[in-house]
Amino acid sequence: MPVFFSLSARILVNLEALNMAESVGNVVRHRRAPVVLRTDNGFVLRYVPVISGESLAHHYQKLLADIAIQRGLPVCSACSQGVFLKHANDDVFKKYDGIDGAKNKFKTGTDAEEYVVKNCVVEDVGGFLYTDKTVKRTSRFRVGYMVPALDALEAGAAATEAQFHVRYSPGAKQEEQAIYYVEIGSAVYVFSFALDASGVGARSMENEGASSRNEYILSLEDRLKRVEAAFDALAALLGGMAWGAKTSRFQPHWKILSLVASVSQPLPFNVSPGHDKNYARETVERACAMTSVVKGFKASIVYYNGEGLMEPEGCNNVSVEKVGSYLEAIRRAKEETLELLRGKS
C-alpha cells in the first residue's frame, strides 16, 4: 500500500543571506517574491524575502549523496560531485558513465530508467528527465520556497536590509577601496517538504514497457535503505542548518520553533503549512475529515511544539503524538514509514 510523508516547520532565521538573486552595481540582493496577505482592508501584495525550492533541493540532494556514499549505496559520478545535471541526455551518459550512444544502447525508456535508478540513489529519489529517450522520472521528494509565515508578516516581522561593507587596504587610494552592500533577511520562515516513500525504487509507469514488468526496480531491502537515507538527509538539512549561500560570512542565527509531520496511507496528505500557530490542529482536523471521505485513509501525525501551538487531538485512524524535539519528530516519522513499507503496521 502506498506510503507518503509530509512535513512543515516554522523556523526563526535572523541575519541571513541564504539565497541571493543578483548583483546590481555593488549591491548583492536577497531573493524576494510576491506574497498575498489578508488585512483588515482586504488583500494586499507584499514583496518579501524568500529562499527558493531550487536552493533547498540542491542542498538536500547533496546531503543525500553524501549519506548514500558513506553507507555504500550507489551514487553516480556527477551527483557524487554535487553536479545535479542528472542523466538528461546522451552527453551526460558519455561524460560521466563512459556510455557512447546511450540512446541506441537502451531498447526502451524503461531500460534506461532501470539503469539510472539502480546506479544512483539521488536520481531515484530526486528524479530525472532523459530527453534523448523521453524518460521522465518525477521526483519522489517535493520542496517549495521558504516564505515568511503569514502571522509574522501581519506583525511586520520580516524584512531585508542592505548592510554596508568595505575591503580596506592601508595606503591604498580611495578608489582602490572596495565598498559593497549585501542584503540580509530576517523572518519566521515556513519550510515544507514531502516524500513519496513508496515511490523510491519503484518504476515510473509512464515509461515505455513498464506495465509489463515488476512494479519495483529494487528489492524491498534496498528500497528501505534508500528511504532511510532520504529521511536522514532531511534531518541533516534541518538539524545541521546545512544549506544556503554565503554562509562563510553570513552564518544565520536560527531556531526551529515548531514542526508537524505526517505519514499517510493510501493517498498523499500534505500537512498544513505553518503560517500560524493553529497549523498542527488544522492538520489533524483535515486528516480526520479525510477519514470520513476517503475509505481506508489513515495517518500518523507527530509534532514538536516549541512555541505554544494550539494542541491537536486525534480521531479514529488518525493518531497524534507530541515529542520533545523536531529531530525526534523526524525520527518517529521515519520509523513509522519504514514499518509501513515492511508491511508490519
As for the number of domains, it is 2
What is the count of DSSP helices, taking H or I runs of 4+ residues? Answer: 10
Q: Give the overall form.
A: globular
Low-pLDDT stretches are: none
Radius of gyration: 22 Å
Strand count: 14
Give the SSE string: EEEEEHHHHHHEEEEHEEHEHEEH
Which whole number gives the mean pLDDT?
94
Keywords: Antiviral defense
Protein name: Conserved uncharacterized archaeal protein
Description:
This is Conserved uncharacterized archaeal protein. Keywords: Antiviral defense. It comes from Hyperthermus butylicus (strain DSM 5456 / JCM 9403 / PLM1-5). The protein is an alpha+beta fold and 345 residues long. The chain has two domains: 4-10 and 53-143 and 189-342, no CATH class; 12-51 and 144-188, no CATH class. The chain is 31% helix and 30% strand. It contains ten helices and 14 strands. Helix 8 (220-239) packs antiparallel against helix 10 (326-342). The longest helix is centred in the middle third of the chain and has 20 residues, at 220-239. The termini are close together. 43% of the residues are buried.
Blueprint (SSEs and pairs):
Elements: E1 4-16, E2 20-24, E3 27-30, E4 32-39, E5 42-49, H1 53-70, H2 77-80, H3 90-97, H4 102-105, H5 109-119, H6 121-126, E6 128-130, E7 135-137, E8 141-143, E9 147-148, H7 150-154, E10 158-167, E11 178-196, H8 220-239, E12 253-265, H9 279-293, E13 298-305, E14 318-323, H10 326-342
Parallel strand pairs: 3-11, 13-14
Antiparallel strand pairs: 1-11, 1-12, 2-3, 4-5, 6-7, 8-11, 9-11, 10-11, 12-13
